[in-house]
Design brief:
Layout: H1 3-7, E1 12-15, H2 25-40, E2 44-47, H3 61-71, H4 95-107, E3 111-114, H5 118-130, H6 146-154, E4 160-163, E5 168-174, E6 178-184, E7 190-192, H7 200-210, E8 215-219, H8 223-235, E9 242-246, E10 249-250, H9 266-273, H10 277-284, H11 302-308, E11 319-320, H12 323-336, H13 339-353, H14 360-373, H15 398-403, H16 409-417, H17 424-433, H18 438-450, H19 458-465, H20 467-480
Parallel strand pairs: 1-2, 8-9, 10-11
Antiparallel strand pairs: 3-4, 4-7, 5-6
């Protein structure tokens, strides 16, 4: 695709999630690529809430969607809260628009009112299944005269509006998958339900047209619906937007990501892992998807991604959700992070995980230490697990006693209190005096200081805590013994 093609028209793209629960990681990727494309070409990134499926509607889902977009700095230009001249941006508030569009198709002969009951439709399905056929509506109501259909509507009879979907071949162009041919042989789909709510196909096409969407960028699970959408555009005598379908997110080369997987949802990365936003965004482009001169060893800022984004470089290769790669980008993100942005994220993860209370100065000291001494640190959640010793002193002597049976721990701790600085020389002297090897002596010190066998070298703990705090922790361990 040529750049000049974009410049000739105003780029307007939309992220259109359904408020049915937690945002899926695939939804975040869709929002991300829409945002990159809009910002690359000075266009508009629109948030549209597709809330017509009232049976699956979740009250706070829109709040969660906004929270996720804010966390990743993918801020909409137009949307339910931002406003805009193409609103409302919630489909449940656009019912009159869909109704008028559906009746326009009736008037042009492309749609009809269907008064068939659920019982009759169920009987048609069962009959088709017995014959080993794909269930299809038999178009009984398509044969009603316009006069009879209007009269039945005026009498208050319940009906839906169906689209006349004739058997046909459809060809359309996708910017990633090229020329796509689809053979359409389906039942006449419902466009407008009896409760006045549209189905996905009608609302999607109408809103993309009314909101002047130039490019539809979405997951490839919608590729199979695009043929029907193309037919609908033709029925309205409208030119479709350009279609861009993103490849799948996979668990492995052969296994799709399941909605039962905890890492299938955006909240897992921010709330459970404490992954920084740009680490997750770098994971999304790890195949070089859409990034010019992609370097797998480079950590891209969001501004860099926008600058180097090229829609023509989006590939068909599926994205593997690799935890090792995410950890790598998380380490890089932490090293490049600015404390001003990092601080509220750390406080948030600590409050959610352990409710630790500490000052801004202490947090800054911890961050400085981690950046200098812990090259593998990346996920903020580890502050409440393996690095909880930053915030708490040892609570039990159990690990110390289990790890060092038949050792006079009280006497050793007394000797430690007499040492001015813990270093290899002083600890080696202590080990010899108590007939221990150096590793055991250092193990006693580490557990006494941080309550864990694992952790930074003793010299780094001394540097971080200072000897006054080290002695205080030794005394606490004495009391616990």
């Amino acid at each position: 695709m040529k750049l000049t093609g974009f410049l000739k028209q105003n780029v307007r793209v939309r992220f259109a999630p359904s408020p049915t629960g937690h945002l899926h990681i695939g939804g975040l990727r869709t929002a991300f690529f829409n945002y990159l494309f809009a910002k690359k070409y000075g266009g508009d990134f629109i948030l549209r809430i597709e809330d017509t499926d009232r049976t699956r509607f979740v009250d706070d889902a829109q709040d969660q969607i906004y929270s996720s977009l804010n966390f990743y700095n993918l801020l909409p230009d137009e949307g339910p809260r931002e406003g805009g001249k193409f609103g409302p941006y919630e489909q449940s508030k656009r019912l009159e628009i869909y109704r008028n569009a559906a009746y326009r198709l009736i008037d042009s002969g492309h749609a009809y009112r269907c008064f068939c009951s659920e019982n009759r439709l169920d009987l048609l399905r069962k009959t088709a299944e017995k014959r080993g056929e794909i269930p299809k509506y038999d178009r009984k109501c398509a044969n009603l005269s316009s006069r009879d259909a209007v009269k039945m509507e005026q009498n208050g009879e319940k009906f839906v509006i169906r689209f006349k979907l004739d058997k046909q071949n459809v060809q359309f162009h996708d910017e990633v998958f090229g020329s796509v041919n689809q053979f359409i042989d389906e039942s006449d789909p419902v466009l407008l339900k009896s409760d006045g709510f549209p189905t996905y196909h009608l609302a999607n096409v109408i809103d993309d047209r009314k909101m002047e969407i130039s490019h539809v960028i979405r997951g490839m699970e919608w590729l199979s619906s695009t043929g029907k959408h193309t037919i609908l555009y033709k029925a309205f005598n409208w030119t479709p937007p350009k279609f861009v379908h993103l490849s799948l997110i996979m668990r492995s080369a052969t296994k799709k990501l399941s909605k039962r997987d905890k890492d299938a949802f955006v909240s897992y990365y921010s709330e459970q892992l404490g992954a920084l936003p740009e680490a997750v965004l770098n994971l999304m482009i790890r195949n070089g998807a859409g990034i010019r001169n992609f370097d797998a060893e480079h950590f891209y800022s969001l501004d860099e991604m926008i600058e180097q984004f090229d829609l023509s470089l989006l590939g068909r290769r599926n994205l593997l959700l690799d935890s090792d790669v995410l950890q790598k980008y998380s380490r890089m993100a932490f090293q490049k992070s600015d404390f001003k942005e990092l601080y509220p994220r750390i406080i948030d993860i600590l409050n959610k995980k352990s409710n630790y209370s500490t000052s801004r100065e202490d947090i800054q000291k911890i961050v400085t230490f981690l950046k200098a001494k812990e090259e593998n640190f990346g996920f903020l959640s580890s502050l409440s697990t393996e690095f909880s010793w930053f915030f708490t002193r040892p609570q039990s002597s159990q690990l110390l006693k289990e790890s060092h049976p038949n050792v006079d721990l009280r006497n050793i701790l007394n000797s430690l209190l007499e040492i001015e600085v813990f270093n290899s020389e002083s600890l080696e002297y202590l080990a010899k005096n108590h007939q221990l090897n150096l590793a055991k002596a250092m193990g006693i010190v580490r557990i006494s200081l941080i309550g864990s066998k694992k952790g930074p070298p003793i010299s780094e703990l001394v540097e971080f805590f200072g000897m006054t705090e080290c002695h205080r922790r030794i005394r606490i361990m004495q009391e616990l013994l």
